[in-house]
Design brief:
6-stranded mixed sheet; Deoxyribonuclease I, Chain A; alpha+beta; about 230 residues
């Protein structure tokens, strides 16, 4: 028979909280995360704090708003610096049987999304057909991913999903991705290109795993099938 090898990826807005960053290591170990994409991390010297010593970080600038944290030593990572900005972290991820471009973004609520969406389009263009996985705190509303209404920013995301032939992983039945007293919303998105969609499984929201007002999101990517011995 064949055994499926999977890599688990997480995404979380850390709310610039030192307490949330301190929780990351335990949460990552409990859920066996190979990669964690964080938005609004608490950083010192351009590096998010509280990470395992051997973890590798992809971000840009002294106060990054998005970072890719590679926690599994067996996962290869190459920072694509020319595609990175303070709000967008981009890396090529490689493991046996698969390589893909990973994008992590934070969409500042007070800003128009055009610049950030432009950065996402540029990553997809630069990927030249390679698989793309994109996660973000989009601060965008649309019934497609669970909101009661559509905002202008949500319409912009709907358009880029269609224009770039992206697949939305979000499952509204999993519950809101953002919760605080008196408010709950679906504003964190997970997108993949068509060439990797068939490998994705188990998109999940994990309520209250940290002190952040955003819930942790995880999903798995199937890497390859290896034969196992029959007993």
């Amino acid at each position: 028979m064949a055994a499926s090898l999977q890599m688990r990826i997480g995404q979380l807005n850390c709310a610039r909280s030192l307490e949330v960053m301190a929780e990351i290591r335990t949460v990552a170990e409990d859920l066996a995360l190979a990669i964690l994409c964080v938005q609004e991390p608490y950083s010192l010297g351009g590096r998010p704090v509280g990470l395992p010593v051997r973890s590798r970080c992809v971000s840009l600038g002294p106060n990054p708003m998005a970072a890719i944290l590679v926690l599994d030593a067996k996962v290869g990572v190459l920072r694509l610096e020319h595609l990175c900005s303070r709000y967008t972290a981009v890396a090529e991820i490689s493991v046996p049987g698969l390589s893909f471009v990973l994008v992590n973004q934070y969409y500042q609520f007070a800003d128009a999304p055009d610049v950030y969406l432009g950065e996402l389009r540029e990553v997809i263009r630069a990927a030249r057909g390679r698989p793309v996985v994109a996660v973000m705190d989009a601060n965008a509303r649309s019934p497609i991913w669970g909101s009661h209404d559509t905002c202008e920013r949500g319409e912009a995301f709907e358009n880029i999903i269609l224009d770039c032939n992206l697949y939305l992983l979000n499952d509204p039945a999993q519950g809101p991705t953002y919760e605080r007293p008196g408010a709950r919303s679906f504003i964190d998105l997970s997108l993949v290109s068509a060439s990797i969609f068939h490998r994705v499984a188990q998109w999940e929201v994990h309520p209250r795993r940290t002190l952040s007002d955003h819930n942790l999101i995880t999903f798995k990517i199937e890497l390859e099938h290896r034969p196992t011995r029959s007993s």
